[in-house]
What we know:
Elements: H1 16-19, H2 46-61, E1 66-71, H3 73-84, E2 89-95, E3 115-116, H4 118-123, H5 126-133, E4 138-139, H6 141-150, H7 152-157, H8 160-168, E5 186-191, E6 212-217, H9 224-227, H10 229-243
Parallel strand pairs: 1-2, 2-5, 3-4, 5-6
Helix pairs in contact: 2-3
Amino acid sequence: MVHGNGVDHRLLLPLEAALDIDGLERLYFDLPGFGQTPALPEPGGLPELAEWLVGHVRGLVGDQPFALLGNSLGGLLVRHLRAQFPGQVCGIAMLAPVVDPVEEHRRQPEFRVLERDDALLSSLDEDDREAFTEMAARQTRPGWEIFSEFIIPGIRSGDSDAFDRLGERYVLPDPDQAAGPFEGPALIVTGRQDHIVGYEDQFALLERYPNATYAALHSCGHNVHVDQPELTRELVRSWAHSLLAD
């Protein structure tokens, strides 16, 4: 389970109910500089973070088969991992994944708020309100409850210097380029109102993941499992069951 930028492993805990399946062990951890994991030394950019991740996962799983689930930046990183562990990765799921780290290369829709609870928003601390409304297409109490429990703690616990170093070297070669198509079960979930990574660039990944399910969820910003929690969980649950089908 690989979280995104600026948060920590708690971001993905709302999906736990969808993954609580006999025979499936879940491994959550914080990337360097996020949550409880110390930051990398300089330069501490995305290439170094990806290298750390490969070594960390190798230490966790050894030569056992494993699946990957990544959100946002984690979606890019799990693609990198599957290229580094040929024959070992049995499935991959990506929620609002980064396809190209270079923002100028992305196709991003206009951000739209489709539901808004003004009374709720006016009651929030200014910093909390800004963090919540920056990405949420559904700015309502159910989304706020998930966001406040699972996302804000990760935002507050991060190393700001590590974030800056990562931003200065936020580049990574296309991980699928030399790996060839991935034939295992795959899932790609995007948000139609996601102005951070969009939903169009991810559709092109279907050529590299021919057995993937792709969904572009309406009324969803970048945090798809916050804006549409039930639907996202059902998609993840179906993918997780497919891992054990054989």
